[in-house]
TrEMBL record:
Pfam families: YqeY
Transmembrane segments: none
Lineage of source species: Bacteria, Pseudomonadati, Pseudomonadota, Betaproteobacteria, Burkholderiales
UniProt xrefs under Gene3D superfamilies: 1.10.10.410, Uncharacterised protein YqeY/AIM41 PF09424, N-terminal domain (1.10.1510.10)
Organism: Sutterella wadsworthensis 2_1_59BFAA
Name under which the protein is recorded: GatB/YqeY domain-containing protein
One Gene Ontology MF term: carbon-nitrogen ligase activity, with glutamine as amido-N-donor
Lineage: superkingdom: Bacteria
Amino acid sequence: MIKDRIREDMKAAMRAHDAAGLSTIRLLLAAIKQREVDEQIEADDALILSVIAKMVKQRQDSVQQYLAGDRQDLADKESVEIKVLEAYLPKGLSDEEIAAVIDAAVAEVGATGMAAMGKVMAIVKPKVTGRADMGKVSALVKAKLTA
């Protein structure tokens, strides 16, 4: 499980006196624990990947804001956190792989128009979460259904 790997990495960061890595891993574990408490469930790998993907997205947005505000020091800190978090995400999907997943979902649902967008996304989302930007995936699904 990813959670066990995260805990082991936390111990390794403590031993190595890696303050930045340790801080990021602790934030990640806290976010996972928060989701577990809020939803009253035990986090599985899919939930953990979605938490990690959300944290990466938040930090990417922060980096853009810091760079726009000419705060390179804060942008660098966020970039380090992104690298630590991305180590737990599976390899990203290529555009062709995303298109194949979308095509399979459209065929499975028998979608012919935008009315089936929700059904298609319900099938696509679990397959690409943490491996692709959901905004991009949504745009590709929309383009496929309107074509």
